[in-house]
Amino acid sequence: MFRKIKQNRMSEDIVNQVLEAISRGDLAPDDKLPSEKELGDIFGVSRVTIREAIRSLEQFGVIVVRQGSRGGAYVKKMDQKAVVNQIGNVLKMANVTFPHLAIARASLEREIIVELIPSRITPEDCEKLVQNIDRAKAHFRNHDSAQRLHSNFGFHTTLARISENPVIILMHKVIVDLSSQFFENVEATPSMVERTFSQHLEIVDLLKKGQFQEAGEVCFRHIAQVSETIVEKSKQQSLLVSRRI
Amino acid sequence: MFRKIKQNRMSEDIVNQVLEAISRGDLAPDDKLPSEKELGDIFGVSRVTIREAIRSLEQFGVIVVRQGSRGGAYVKKMDQKAVVNQIGNVLKMANVTFPHLAIARASLEREIIVELIPSRITPEDCEKLVQNIDRAKAHFRNHDSAQRLHSNFGFHTTLARISENPVIILMHKVIVDLSSQFFENVEATPSMVERTFSQHLEIVDLLKKGQFQEAGEVCFRHIAQVSETIVEKSKQQSLLVSRRI
DNA sequence: GTCAAACAAATAGTTTGACATTTATATGTA
DNA sequence: TACATATAAATGTCAAACTATTTGTTTGAC
Questions:
Q1: Computed over its alpha carbons, how large is the radius of gyration of chain A?
Q2: Closest to B104 (Cβ–Cβ): which among A87, A89, A167?
Q3: Which residues of chain B have pLDDT under 50?
Q4: How do residues A130-144 score in pLDDT, each as one tens digit?
């Protein structure tokens, strides 16, 4: 019925005021907040209190603080990358395992392909997907596994983007980012890599032909299968995969 | 190739050490951190620095701080609710609109129903779903719209839980929580409420009959339709719906 | 014994003033 | 011009004191 009142701590009040200012647009990205001393004068509190508020805002991810001359607290652009990072950090403290991430990703991408993409996909999108595959192949030839992984994940991220729904794109990116660390810790065999390439190509081909249902199923199986391999490989290398990330 | 070193700020170091201690399990939920003074002695820094670290950890959501005797910083249980809250707060600062949330939710639930539920659903699950509907109806009769909404959202949350995938359950809950504020701000007409009841019932009936594909489609259309109504009603009441949440 | 008020102890919240460190920019010099 | 150096404006840190809040304990009245 009622919610408990708790308005201790001046720093909290300051945090809220700054957040509101950002929400309203009174503070735009790259804007500089007044210096700690000035803020102290404005809010009528000491520098220590201001600094506590700044630490909260910084942890929240809405400002960055630079030292030195021309330093200070600057409003951070809350772009997709920043949001994904923030959410990822929170999720790291939750008891989420790699298999859970994998299934969630596979499901999400299937839904994206089967239901969200058909009305939106363009030949240019297909072209981008193919480019991702080509880039990954080039990195494979150069034995650059980090970049190869990046391009392969890029294939899936590109898929998600076609949905044009920021919430879905965000959720997908969070899952992919958290998953990627597991991929980085196992060495992929050439056959695994080649299979990924051919499955990615198969998905693009099906998309081009308008066979979205099939493409979705191939994608789901692809992710499930690759994830299963990662889990197996991780076990061989005694890596934690079923524990919290 | 290399990443820039940045070892400024002792409070950051302290934050990381505490986070690691929590990750390792050295600090369990409800454990009390030493007092500020003691922490200062342990880390060899002043109380001010300790307090800055504590503000960060608090904003991160891993501790709560109580004042007074027997007060101090206590490790917070990172249960689903806390994680959902944290992620929701981050998302509030992103440019996410209600329609985007609505489509994401509709898609997510369709995938849950069509692909994730079939192998898992039990008669008990159906019973829980029916109970949610009944509770909502009771609240409707009592003209308690807040509780009615809560039970109606509970129907969908119960659905998500059947997936048994914490990542999916989490994503779904975040979206539902963020969406709910829009529902709370418009007054639903009796006909809208009745239609929701009948659609929820229809979904349960289809689930009982094993017609998952159909249930998924009904659910998708139900969410899309209700959301559309919310958008319309909000416009009439001059509420922001297409701007950032 | 029970209740309430007064008191004590522990802890977070805040202030003040000082000094250290970092960084961009201006200044001076070869 | 190029490079070193000084300067100024920030943040980063410290120490010590005082305030506010919460909780436990004692004391006293009934």
A1: 23
A2: A167
A3: 239, 241-245
A4: 999 999 999 999 999
For chain A, which domains are there? 10-75 (1.10.10.10), 81-236 (1.20.120.530)
Say whether A101 sits in a helix, a strand or coil. helix
The whole-angstrom separation of Cα B71 and Cα A179 is 39
Indicate the pTM of the whole model.
0.91
Q: Which residue has the tokens 């070892």?
A: B7
Number of helices (H) and strands (E) in chain B: give both, helices first.
10, 2
Residue of chain A whose Cα is closest to the Cα of B60 = A59
Are A103 and B167 a contacting pair at CB < 8 A?
A: yes
- Pick from A244, A236, A125, A126: which is nearest to A181 by CA? A244
Q: Which residues of B134-149 are buried (b: 16+ CB within 10 A; e: fewer)?
A: ebbbebbeeeeeeebb
Which one of A9, A50, A51, A55 makes the best mutation probe of the B interface by having the most chain B beta carbons within 10 Å?
A55
Supply the pLDDT for residue B7: 66
Q: Residue B37 burial (CB < 10 Å; 0-12/13-18/19+)?
A: exposed
